[in-house]
Amino acid sequence: RAKSDGRGTFRFFEPAMDLQMQTRRIMEQDLRKALPAGEFELHYQPVVNLASKEISGFEALIRWNHPTKGMISPAAFIPLAEEIGFIVPMGEWVLRKACATAAQWPDNFHVAVNISAIQFRSPGLIQVIVGALAASGLAPTRLEIEITESVLLHNKEATLALLHQLRALGIRIAMDDFGTGYSSLTYLQSFPFDKIKIDRSFVKNITENSSSLNIVRAVAALANGMGMTATAEGVETAEQLHSIASEGCTEMQGFLFSRPLPAAEIERQFLSGRGTRGAQGRII
Ligand code: C2E
Ligand code: MG
Ligand code: MG
Ligand code: MG
């Protein structure tokens, strides 16, 4: 309903704005309660080494088990969590949980944790990471931190210093969703990445679109040439697997191998030895 603002004009969008703001406020309150209420959960997706056909590790991916709305995917709450700063305590919980879980796995498996740009810039990130490693007993060499290109846009010197500090601890750094942001090739030269994850939008079109194939090939070659490994994200079909297989990617991840699964299911399917894929995590 349009409403007069008292000066002879009308504001037509107010009720809709109110509703949007109210929804947001409720979501914000729910988010803050979710941590103490234990509503967050981590799922883990296998990362497969192409040459050995074995699992090299797992990426931790957060899920929110909302009391009335059910399972909510991170795309639906991470932007708000970043906006209100909640990403910092949430991200600390993720680090602690992922390290504690991975410490129970055989030593040859790493765990990859996504760190948002806001969390990356928060003071004390190093202490949080060191704390999560110490509390879990996980070796730093088994932790991989995934950051996106947006991290690099802000305060280049401080970011570079932090990345070097992390690497000095033995932690590996992966550039996530490569090709979707704004970074230039010079970033790859100046930042110490161990791994480049090629965004799944390129993998998605690889069998229909020769430019996507060329991009995957070029990024993998670039990564390898700079001593980094390349991971293809979002591999869903055998055709995509076969297209990528000869393009220089070291690792792959995608629904073809496994969806992200709860820790107990990962243990049962891939790590138990009595599981369907064997103790070494052979998968393809
Ligand atoms: P991401 O880090 O690039 O993670 C990969 C996303 O692709 C995951 O979505 C995963 O489920 C999905 N995926 C994997 N294989 C396939 C496939 O073959 N096909 C398709 N269509 N999708 C595939 P998810 O779990 O919904 O996470 C979305 C994004 O949310 C993540 O993208 C990451 O940016 C963010 N995120 C997830 N967990 C966390 C977290 O703990 N902390 C932070 N800061 N961000 C997180
Ligand atoms: Mg990731
Ligand atoms: Mg990604
Ligand atoms: Mg992504």
Automatic annotation (TrEMBL):
UniProt superkingdom: Bacteria
Domain spans labelled EAL: 24-274
Protein name: EAL domain-containing protein
Top-level taxonomy: Bacteria, Pseudomonadati, Pseudomonadota, Alphaproteobacteria, Hyphomicrobiales
Coverage span on the entire protein: 430 to 713 of 715
